[in-house]
Amino acid sequence: MGVALGLKKDELKNAKEYVNEVLALVKKKNPGETEFHQAVEEVLHSLIPIIAKHPVYMDNGILERLTEPERLITFSVPWVDDNGKTHVNRGFRVQFNSALGPYKGGLRFHPSVNASIVKFLGFEQILKNSLTGQPLGAGKGGSDFDPKGKSDGEIMRFTQSFATELNKHIGPDIDIPAGDTGVGAREIGFMFGQMKRLRGAYEAGILTGKGLEYGGSLVRKEATGYGTVYFLNEMLKDAGLSLNGKRVTVSGSGNVSIYAMEKAAESGATIVACSDSDGYIYDPSGIEIATVKRIKEEEGKRISEYLKTHPGAEYHSGCSGIWSLPCDIALPCATQNEIDENDAQMLVKNHVLAVAEGANMPSTKAAKDLFVKNNVLFAPAKAANAGGVAVSSLEMAQNSMRLRWTFEEVDQHLQKIMKNIYQETKKASEEYGYPGDLSVGANLAGFKRVADALVSQGVV
Ligand code: NDP
């Protein structure tokens, strides 16, 4: 890397030492937060060449400032279930970095949510939002509440209680939350209604992912899944390949998965498998996406139901087995660390051509290294799944202008943004001596914009 940039040994050595010092500090200050450590470690190691080339970042303590959230808010969320029993969950909002704009990032309701998870997601969001080119800072949040098996009334009471506290910390120019795992249009609607009452004002710009009837944007629902496939298409095209006729495995069957499947199928691929947290379905002749939509979006049932209308398909309990299926392209769209080294080995053995991450940090570092080593085309999450937040930004723009763009207009913007992210990512990977490694390219390209903004804004 140093050779490509004409860097001296000393410059690289200083940069490495600085990165290692900051990493040690992050681990010391955030004990036991393994997902946060994992995300920071992956990013910081890849920044060594840019730090060596621009000592101004070291002089301005940019890495210390990027890895320490500007604010971490935790709060209790009391709510009453249908039997009159009181429960208390924990709510989080991390307002990680505001160098480029107001804090922006989703809310996750899942029992695994804790400070480590929201910090890893918030940290990744800094570079992802920067890559979109939109004026967005970074935040993330959620609760350890488990929506599974809860009635609509319970979801509403919990969400209203969560929104009552979160409302104190957000605003159209401060922090604009959106959805993530376990938080879809229904939950955003309940939050918006509650916040509207509390604020005594109709401020469309306080949340994104809103319903179309009250300020939501067309394509927001589809944006992350579609965006992942737009990025994938660019990557394949560059390698002289296309999705046409390819077998695609998609993990999960939630918001990101469904629209990744839809767009991949539109591009001529056959979706051979998808999953939920209980198991996966496999149908080499092609999964019918309309049925998956009905089961998951409309009925909120388990993916195993698919076999009732498609008895020719197979259902297997447990989710990680999905990566042992032969496929040309893998789209992990469910959750963090869902592809480990063994899973990656099976995919490589089955001659996978490309992996594009729809979920956040779905591949472990060992898995990612294995893909790169075996020349598998690899689209890293923070670049490939940035379409969701990009369209959230377009939703904010439409809210400010008090108008609504057509589906085609928003989709055109999304395609342009994803193409641009691909090009910037590729360019940065080549400029800093890592051709073909888009993970490093995404970190470098995302970092540069935020780091320069932080330098310009001074230490306050
Ligand atoms: P959803 O809640 O809509 O869907 C998540 C899906 O993943 C569900 O089908 C869920 O199954 C399944 N799942 C969860 N854990 C596992 C597992 N271990 N193995 C297999 N399947 C599993 O969430 P989203 O689609 O919104 O988010 C998915 C990922 O994409 C997350 O990493 C999120 O952070 C990321 N992301 C989402 C964005 C968005 O706009 N929504 C934007 C950018 C990133 P079950 O039904 O059983 O719970």
Describe the structure.
- The protein is of the alpha/beta class.
- It folds into three domains: 66 residues, no CATH class; 132 residues, Leucine Dehydrogenase, chain A, domain 1 (Rossmann fold); 162 residues, NAD(P)-binding Rossmann-like Domain (Rossmann fold).
- It has 19 helices and twelve strands.
- The protein has a seven-stranded mixed β-sheet with strand order 9-8-7-6-10-11-12, sandwiched between helices. Strands 1-2-4-3-5 form a five-stranded mixed β-sheet, with helices on both faces.
- α11 links the parallel β6 and β7.
- The longest helix is centred in the last third of the chain and has 25 residues.
- It starts with a helix and ends with a helix.
- The model has no long low-confidence stretch (mean pLDDT 97).
- It binds NADPH dihydro-nicotinamide-adenine-dinucleotide phosphate.
- The site of NADPH dihydro-nicotinamide-adenine-dinucleotide phosphate has 26 residues, from α11.
Attribute tags:
globular; seven-stranded mixed sheet; five-stranded mixed sheet; alpha/beta; 460 residues; Rossmann fold; 12 strands; 50% helix
The total of beta strands comes to: 12
Residue-averaged pLDDT: 97
Low-confidence stretches: none
Structural class: alpha/beta
CATH class value of the largest domain: Alpha Beta
Which ions, cofactors or small ligands are bound in this entry? NADPH dihydro-nicotinamide-adenine-dinucleotide phosphate
Q: What's the multimeric state?
A: single chain
Helix content, binned percent: 40-55%
Name of the CATH architecture of the largest domain: 3-Layer(aba) Sandwich
Q: What gyration radius follows from the Cα positions, in whole Å?
A: 21 Å
Number of domains: 3
**Cα distance, first to last residue?**
34 Å
The CATH topology assignment of the largest domain is Rossmann fold
Major sheet: 7 strands, mixed
Could you give me the name of the CATH homologous superfamily of the largest domain? NAD(P)-binding Rossmann-like Domain
Strand line-up across the major sheet: 9-8-7-6-10-11-12
Strand content: 5-15%
Shape, per Cα inertia axes: globular
Number of helices: 19
